[in-house]
Amino acid sequence: MGARLNTPVPGHDIDLFDDYCEHLLVRDEATQEVIGTYRVLTPVQARRVGSTYSDTEFDLTRLRGLRNRMVELGRSCVHPDHRHGGVIMALWTALGEFMVRNQLDTMIGCASIPLMQGGVFNGDVAASIWRQVRAKHLAPIEFQVRPRLALPLENLNDRLDVEAPALIKGYLRLGTKVLGPPAWDPDFNSADLPLMMRFADLHPRYRKHFLGA
């Protein structure tokens, strides 16, 4: 997808956080092929490694009071042949069980919006999605964060009629909040939105499904 990876294994996305994370996998029962993944960085492991991945992209000072109960989600991926909703639901259900079992109640992470279209940089799509989501889903000021390398929104057209990626729309339906404007990740050619889901904000429609109560 055009990413510039600094990795010991060519073609593989590997970083220093991988070895500290729990990794959730969904397998096809017939083939045992891995068709869905999430990685989860717990508060204990975040202290061991020294930060979260999100800390490298955003100033998370305002979240310091949540860190003891906060996990970071990352590297969400579903096989192209299985993107019909079932795999991500399986991952979210397992994630809910993991959170309840470990007495954790807050999830954060970066949701990426691709910036390259046909080999050309196009930040207008990301700017337009940011304009849409901040109107209805922006977190209260006490939880808002700032990007370390901001997408230059002032130079972009944010009036395009575009839809957010399916994963972001799914998060927002659950009750996820957007913590602030997107960071610019040149290595992955993406704009990264900072997101936070707290069980207290979980939409009632999904509460029993994910929390069992």
Question: Can you describe this structure?
Answer:
With 213 residues, this protein is α+β, with helices and mostly antiparallel strands. The chain has a single domain, classed as Aminopeptidase (3-Layer(aba) Sandwich). It contains six helices and eleven strands. It has helices spanning 43-49, 53-57, 86-101, 124-137, 166-174, 204-211, and strands at residues 22-27, 34-41, 58-59, 70-78, 106-114, 116-117, 120-121, 146-147, 177-178, 183-185, 190-198. Strands 1, 2, 4, 5, 9, 10 and 11 form a seven-stranded mixed β-sheet that branches. A two-stranded antiparallel sheet has the order 3-8. The protein has a two-stranded antiparallel ribbon with strand order 6-7. Strand 1 (22-27) and strand 2 (34-41) form a beta hairpin. The radius of gyration is 17 Å and the shape is globular. The model has no long low-confidence stretch (mean pLDDT 91).
